[in-house]
Amino acid sequence: MSRCSPSTEIAKGIRVHSDFHHLISRRGFLIAAAGVAASAPMRPVRASATEERRIKVAPSQARLTGTDGPQTPVWAYDGTVPGPTLRLRQREPARIVVDNGLDEDTTVHWHGIRLPNAMDGVPGLTQKPIKPGESFVYEFTPPDAGTFWYHPHADSLVQLGRGLAGALIVEEAEPVAVDRDLLWLLQDWRLAKDGQIAAGFGNMMDAAMSGRVGNVVTINGTVPADQLVKAGERIRLRLANASLARIMALRFEGHRPVVVAIDGQPCDPHEPDSGRLVLAPAMRIDVMLDMQGDPGKRYAVIDDFYDGLAYTLTTLAYDEAPPLRAHPLDAPVGLPRNPLPAPDLAGAERQEIVLQGGMMGGGKLAGVGGMMGMGMPGMNGEAAWAINGTSMTGDGHAGMAPQFTLRRGTTCHLTMRNETAWWHPMHIHGFSMSVLSRNGSSVPHRQWQDTVLLAPKDTIECAFVADNPGDWMLHCHVADHQMAGLMTVFRVT
């Protein structure tokens, strides 16, 4: 099986324990659910300076295995999984009130948005948690157009795993020339045989290995369905991975998707390596798809990230009508760039973070200078991972000491080195990073990302201008890994 960027052998280093094999067999691997962006759970909601938007976080129910399947208790924004799609306008202020109907604290992190630190949603670090029955007002003006999302940053593993996620789309000032704009928000669930969410959040094997990978995948919270398309149309497809741990590598049979944005930031349009779109938890990829298939034909969209566990995510089903146009739409596919400050590499301050820990071959925990204690890693809040020898567990709290401090306006040249045997999507709050190199080779296409996927033993160099003051999180977005220590903080003064 061929493999693509970020590594030519993308599934090496994925060590799957026996419980994972029990959950995910080749025969009964998963239920893959695909739906159109216009489905009810993805209804667009306008939030603007003139309209205050309220979102309630509360328990709800969803039929994750189909209309004939059982109701699954979930936690949801406004009663739907995923939550309502918020559509904002670039450079227009937004005001969103979040009401907490759970029996525990929550917050909302507006993932990928460059916003004021007080609006970032990290409990203790940037705001007081939203207590049960209380509310919090988030106000910010998104500087960048693109595909973003929102999710909790309190009890992250459980709250994300029970369904709390929603898409946030910031629209460009001028409409993009496409026939349709679709969103696929992907979520991964670990369900028991009765269709209920399986117990065991934060168990040792997940915490110290690949994280809580599930056995059911949904798109836009819907059951398996064909994606209906028309020959000759151009679709802007926004892909967002809201899974706890599942990495995906999507291949569109018979089609040539063109990547136009990563993590909401436009890049040089390009076809992905080997035709596969690698999407780790928290990442987003926008692609342009010219539908050049034959009327009446069907084409599979396959996820083949994990060796031996490929499956059909959904199917592009063409209607019988003649092509909408004889030739692809005569309009550029590139998107207008966002106003990101250009790093000054010549005068940059260099920082390095080293990812350590996790289970290695033979089930031993690789720590700082050897074993990290005799207790079970990742259990009861114990650390299974470290950054530069320090483990920060949980979701964030007051008084977290920064790993490094940057003067406002300084360019930071950040090297991230993965010394573990596992994959880590590293997410930076408050900034987008220019991705410079991977393992010594330049990264093409002028890519900016807020979540960068490191394969085992990868070294990635990035750069950003520290123009946003505050204490900011930097952590792995495999939720088990973050909760078990793969998290740090840096400060901009």
TrEMBL record:
Domain of life: Bacteria
Domain Plastocyanin-like: 65-173, 184-303, 399-492
Keyword Metal-binding tagged: yes
Key words of the record: Metal-binding, Oxidoreductase
Coiled-coil segments on the chain, per record: none
An example Gene Ontology CC term for this record: outer membrane-bounded periplasmic space
One Pfam family linked to the record: Cu-oxidase_3
Gene Ontology molecular functions: copper ion binding; oxidoreductase activity
Stated name of the protein: Copper oxidase
Source organism of this protein record: Mesorhizobium mediterraneum
